[in-house]
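Dear support,

We are seeing what looks like truncated structure output for some complexes. This example has two components. We would appreciate it if you could run it in full and send us the complete token output so we can diff it against ours.
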Amino acid sequence: MRINIQHQITCAFDSPIPSLIQILRLTPRTYDGQFVRRWQIDVDIDAVLKAREDSFGNITHVLTLAGPFTELTIAVDGEVETQDTHGVVAGAQEPFPTRLYLRETPLTHPGAGLAAFAQDIAGEGSLLDRLHALLIGIHERVDVDTAATKAPAMSTAAEAFVLRRGVCQDLAHIFIACARSLGIPARYISGYMFGDADESRRDASHGWAEAFVDGLGWVGFDAANCICATDAYVRVSVGLDYFGAAPIRAVHNGAAAERRTIAVAVGAASVGQAQEQHQT
Amino acid sequence: MAFDEMYTAEGEIRPAYVGVAKWMAAVAPEQLERRRAEAELLYRRGGITFAVYGDTQGEERIIPHDIVPRVLSSDEWSRLAKGLEQRVRALNMFLADIYGPRNVLKAGIVPEDLIWRNPAFRPEMVGLRVPHGIFVHIAGIDIVRIDANEFYVLEDNARTPSGVSYMLGGREISIRLMSDLFATHRVAPIENYPDQLLDTLRSVAPRGANGDPVVALLTPGQFNSAYYEHSFLADKMGVELVEGRDLFVRDEVVYMRTTEGPRRVDVIYRRIDDDFLDPLTFRQDSALGVPGLFSAYAAGNVTLANAIGTGAADDKDIYSYVPEIIRFLLSEEPILKNVPTWRCREPKDLGYVLDHLAELVVKEVHGSGGYGMLVGPQASREEIATFAARVKARPEGYIAQPTLALSTCPTFVESGVAPRHVDLRPFVLSGANGIRIVPGGLTRVALRQGSLVVNSSQGGGTKDTWVIEC
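Here is the complete output from our reference environment:
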């Protein structure tokens, strides 16, 4: 599938801020299942964007801006061709051994509750069966909050699990925490999702999980939509949790209140028409 | 029976202590008490205090300084120094390896999960080249002695070891208050430590820095328990003492805000933990760090001392592998011994530990400062039972060691001069021009009779350490 992505992030500040530094993980890479035809990041203020690769193989940009300014828009525009690999990721750059992805992070610490839930729900079957059982179990148990109220995921997996609701990041964290507690390497993926025509799934800047299955490799699991990743998914960055893969890492200093608005248009390239804008 | 550093089993005075013994025989107890009081006053005036975590009040408390010096002969020291040099060389090579080619893992010297799942291991550092390949610029290696011939490493401290200001403060007290005794010995100097530290820091400046690199000391601020040491060292080195908010990053270069405008910083001696260094890469909620610092570091535009992620070399699990690491990476036999260590994450070891808690010392793998440890022989039955439950619940979090009879030194206590258990923390500096160690280090003494815990947070004191020709 050829997918067009326009992603606009506008940060507006209550009072002028003198300078700003952010780290962007907004650039996808090409691998077997995904070909990046074109990709561009524009910032509407004179800015320096330094490209680097982090240790996970993500392309990062350090954005440094000298102010003062009150509003900033980062615009991403690109086109990616994807193939349906039934969620299996092949040919991507893998600088770490899979066992690294058993590390716990503060956001993905399972606690006794999640570990017991994972044990209970995953059952006995094959590794893939257990992961699917986990996917379904989490989706049934935790409501997906599409209101996108809190931009950076700040709840931990355990907190969201107790609340029984969360945004896509939270569900991904719960999946990751459960998988790791079962001894299955798992990680966080940040990217984009092309929605369904009937809008049961809407276009979005999205987050989901991958788990490592011996013999297959990394497989994408989207607990928010209860499916394995398809060719409607564009993988952008990988991390141990949201913080490691976040599209934007910024400091929220108390000096000036910040409002961030995000608009995403993901469309099939042939249609070329922006659909409803949304973020999960 | 603990090894007495002053007397042999036959009651003879060991050569290094002949002068001290003579002096002790001649000095009146009131005189000793007066000097102790003066020393305490000197410390208070100097402001050497050390906040102890866990105190409900959080008030500053003075660490008691014992005026009777601990003496090592230059022969003993040179043997020890060779071992320290070797150990720190190995720790640096180990870190370069786990963040690089991972040969120690491929060869099975260290189990992979001890690295990949180690919270002190920083995946962000993988593949990053640190200036001159040095990770641990300042190491504090805790040494204990149990007989005349052997020094054992008790613990490696490769993150932000503290205590050097007590080492220097203790020497100042010896010179000022113990001049009669000091003058009769040829004590190797340590006062040049700040110069050597500065030299070491400047030597590891990024290759792009100009000939006169700018060094700054980054502190978490005055509420940190070691703030005094931070300001003391910055002052002695003549470098700026900065907090996170005094620094900023622009275009992957670190600058310091000064009254004359921004000034580029080449080397940061940071006394802030990894987690708090940069909210854009590590803990998002850190207000102590510098946003973007890691990107400047990754770009090779600033040196951090110590490097990020050095904690992967000094936890108590990795510790137990250091002798093997030395053999593998250096092709040398370890000069300093390790204390035998049971790894509770290994079922066989765990069984042994749980059966022998009453005789062992059990420590948290990632603990420090003497917190969260069990000294079996001195623990009550309840304490042992509580601890056993903790170890069973999370065995991978603990290691155990035999209760060592740490050596003793004469120490001035209420009942007069009596032997008390000691350890030693030498400070090892690694720079582009090699490894340097000022002779001696910080001697910590367990002031309570029979106590084996020397940590200042647990009621330990300090002593000046003299390395003498004898």
